[in-house]
Write a structure and sequence with these properties.
Structural class: mainly alpha
Number of strands: 0
Strand content: under 5%
Order of helices and strands: HHHHHHHHHH
Distance between the termini: 43 Å
Number of domains: 1
Radius of gyration: 20 Å
Length: about 260
């Protein structure tokens, strides 16, 4: 070996490998966190079972009244699961990583800021696959009869994840951890009630309803409902709204996210 050479050769790993390793780490940390699992898995599952089994809120069914409440609720709960993981859970976890100096140390690594965001979003997608599988199984057990194109559902879930992930990272990267904790939970509760997840948007006044329909969780829940309950094709309006929120959230997060 000639003087001045080293084996293995020092240097940063390929970017794809760095992102993959960070995504795997983020996924393991998420699945080991009991509080996050409560928020992302248990609460949506309990809401689906409760509101499908007990006539607490009158929900619209298919023409002729042949549908079941679970047909309306299942798409909304899937949207809630995406929001809880990509937005609420990710914002809180990332906010406290920033407070404890974890992100500061990552900032000194070759992993770029946008690479960290990609890794966190990939981790969210892995978790959502498990969520969707669990919630779908519960919904089928409750008598759910979905319709529509699975590709349309996948497109909605992917864009919804990107939108909520960008907004969650923006919040976590700009606010203090304690503020992020309070704000993320408050937004979760407000959108649970006013985002068309459990309570139909038709129950709100017309002026307020038009505003609520622009929210990402409303677009996601309504798009999933159009496809899975009514068998519609690609819901372009909802996809456009989610795409706009994705560009806005991820763009602002990439620009303003702070490591410390």
């Amino acid at each position: 070996m000639s003087a001045g050479t080293f084996a293995p050769r020092p240097g940063a790993a390929p970017l794809s490998r760095m992102i993959g390793a960070q995504a795997a780490l983020e996924t393991r940390m998420l699945l080991r966190n009991g509080e996050q699992l409560l928020l992302t898995v248990i609460i949506p599952a309990l809401l689906l079972v409760l509101f499908s089994s007990v006539d607490v809120i009158s929900v619209p069914v298919d023409a002729g009244g042949s549908g079941k409440s679970v047909d309306f609720l299942a798409p909304g709960v899937l949207a809630l699961a995406v929001m809880s993981t990509a937005f609420t859970g990710q914002a809180i976890a990332t906010g406290f990583d920033r407070r404890h100096g974890v992100l500061k140390r990552l900032g000194a690594s070759p992993l770029p800021r946008w690479g960290l965001m990609v890794a966190k979003t990939l981790s969210v997608l892995v978790t959502e696959v498990l969520q969707v599988a669990l919630l779908t199984g519960i919904a089928f057990a409750l008598g759910w009869s979905p319709h529509g194109n699975p590709l349309a559902v996948a497109a909605l879930l992917l864009l919804g994840t990107a939108a909520f992930s960008g907004l969650g990272l923006l919040m976590a990267g700009t606010l203090k951890a304690e503020v992020t904790l309070a704000a993320a939970n408050l937004v979760f509760l407000l959108l649970l009630v006013a985002g068309g997840v459990i309570v139909p948007l038709e129950k709100f006044p017309a002026g307020l309803r038009h505003v609520l329909e622009l929210l990402p969780v409303s677009a996601l829940s309504q798009g999933l409902r159009d496809v899975l309950q009514h068998g519609a094709g690609l819901p372009w309006e909802q996809l456009g709204l989610l795409g706009g929120w994705s560009v806005l959230g991820l763009g602002l997060a990439a620009r303003h996210f702070r490591w410390e």
